[in-house]
């Protein structure tokens, strides 16, 4: 089968090559991929930013497809089913946090940027009928992360005011759509005017350019503070978030693309009873609830662009440049 | 009546003087104080560290006593009752956070370091029978802060592992006692060998000297990480706490005596799904639950020393030096 693998000898660090399909083991199924999607994680693997990166691995955490083959003992009814794949492997029993055995599909295990992928049958969910394969394939990792951040960690209630920072990235767009669907009042920030305009079109009450010095002041004036902020930047901007979150409010962050903050205004955090909450991916329960939520509210992921596997380098470079608005999808 | 007031002309910044008792207003009661207790807040008022400090105010947030007089319309049954006073005024309706009108008894309003204090009748709770006036007077502010930190913010469950940092201070000792009573496995840290020994005697599973470089390593080895940490220091030590809290665990802090941390290891916070939660004092609901808890478990506050009002300077200096283990009580 054709697959996009990590290869440190090519200039793109990627290689479209023929890879043999290994036999299924107990509990496994073979899914013919119809659409895969990129996450920052894939780009960071390409850049070698994770420990123990194994060259030759098939990248890709997100995928949708059709079940082609099942291991002995698995219900044959799965064959031919249209599915999406939960890329969170071995989360474990604790809803609070992943176990030590937790893995993400697409490094170290072979992922979805291939004509076929092998996963445990318990990673399969039926594809919501209102979604195309491209839309369904765009959902898993970012949708799961956004859902857990908003609802399990953020405990979002309808009518609460939510700020989504860095609008345009995959998790941020899902967080925006989910929060809207849940009846929250949604605000967004981005350094890109184009992305701010899209957020407005999608129903943001207000949008902010976080590169402007007065954005905190303006946001406080307009919103009177946010009940919940969903962020992936951290860095020194975290203290701006502490200043625009409502007393008693929450800042949930799932990344630290701007690194560690160089201070934390501790007195404000304790006196205003603010919660700073780290989150990552989600449990099986979160995934199941996310899929139900998507169906109930007929949410469609925003697709930035659909590439073929042959265009993988272009797709990765677009992710790296942060130009995308919505998910970058690849099809075999 | 005699009262300890804030006075910037004396060397001690305190003055024991005669102050007239004003008439009661609607909803108020007059309590004859039997015992008052000090908090760091009183010392910080003495040092002028709060904005809008009014000279001449009677300090003191903690007190127990006997109701002597009630305003018209209030149940006369209160007269003669032995009570403790909830020093949290105007918390408001939101369990998550105090309102903008929130005040603490003993600045700007006259407090408990006096023969008599005037408070709203809704601040009164019957003194638990198993407590002396000295013990009951030691309870309110620190007990309330500890109770909210552990149970509302920290959501402590029995058998969870809790680390109480800076053992010896008022809130820390209550947090220690409450957590033990709730069936948690309690650990403590202190820079003082004497205080660490007391924590051991009171049933700490292990104690740590946080001035030693290897304490984080040792604590991790012995505890395999804490589910909950109760802290009032913040500062750079916050990152040590991030290293010893269990993945999915909580760090609840109610002060920042060491100031702002100079960094925050953000990646660890989000990947380990850690919650950093600020807290302060507590709501009326927290206070009521705290008093019930104290009664149910027959908890007795640890008293460091009982001084008279005449010895106020000595009492404040002991608090300032951090020598106390338990609460510093003053009686008229």
From TrEMBL, chains A, B:
SUPFAM superfamilies: GroES-like, NAD(P)-binding Rossmann-fold domains. InterPro entries: ADH-like_C, ADH-like_N, ER, GroES-like_sf, NAD(P)-bd_dom_sf, Zinc_ADH-like. It comes from the Bacteria. Residues 9-330 form the Enoyl reductase (ER) domain. Coiled coil: none annotated. This is Zinc-binding dehydrogenase. It comes from Algoriphagus pacificus. The lineage of its organism: Bacteria, Pseudomonadati, Bacteroidota, Cytophagia, Cytophagales.
């Amino acid at each position: 089968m054709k697959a996009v693998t990590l290869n440190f000898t090519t200039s793109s660090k990627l290689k479209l090559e023929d890879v043999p399909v290994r036999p299924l083991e107990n509990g496994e199924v073979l899914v013919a991929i119809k659409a895969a999607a990129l996450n920052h994680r894939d780009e960071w693997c390409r850049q070698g930013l994770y420990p123990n990166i194994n060259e030759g691995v098939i990248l890709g955490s997100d995928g949708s497809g059709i079940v082609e083959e099942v291991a002995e003992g698995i219900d044959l009814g799965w064959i031919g089913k249209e599915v999406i794949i939960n890329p969170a492997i071995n989360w474990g029993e604790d809803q609070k946090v992943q176990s030590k055995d937790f893995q993400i599909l697409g490094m170290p295990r072979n992922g979805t940027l291939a004509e076929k992928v092998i996963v445990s049958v318990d990673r399969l969910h039926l594809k919501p009928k209102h979604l195309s394969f491209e839309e369904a394939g765009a959902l898993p990792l970012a949708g799961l992360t956004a859902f857990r951040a908003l609802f399990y960690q953020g405990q979002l209630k309808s009518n609460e005011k939510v700020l989504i920072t860095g609008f345009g990235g995959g998790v941020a767009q899902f967080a925006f759509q989910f929060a809207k669907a849940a009846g929250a009042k949604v605000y967004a920030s981005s350094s890109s005017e184009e992305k701010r305009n899209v957020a407005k079109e999608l129903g943001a009450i207000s949008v902010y350019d976080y590169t402007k010095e007065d954005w905190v002041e303006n946001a406080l004036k307009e919103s009177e503070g946010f009940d919940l902020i969903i962020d992936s930047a951290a860095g020194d901007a975290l203290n701006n978030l502490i200043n625009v979150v409502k007393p008693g409010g929450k800042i949930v962050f799932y990344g630290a693309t701007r690194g560690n903050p160089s201070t934390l205004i501790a007195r404000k955090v304790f006196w205003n009873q603010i919660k700073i909450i780290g989150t990552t991916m989600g449990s099986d329960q979160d995934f199941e609830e996310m899929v139900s939520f998507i169906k109930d509210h007929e949410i469609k992921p925003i697709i930035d662009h659909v590439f073929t596997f042959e265009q993988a380098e272009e797709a990765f470079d677009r992710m790296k440049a942060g130009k995308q608005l919505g998910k970058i999808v690849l099809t075999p």
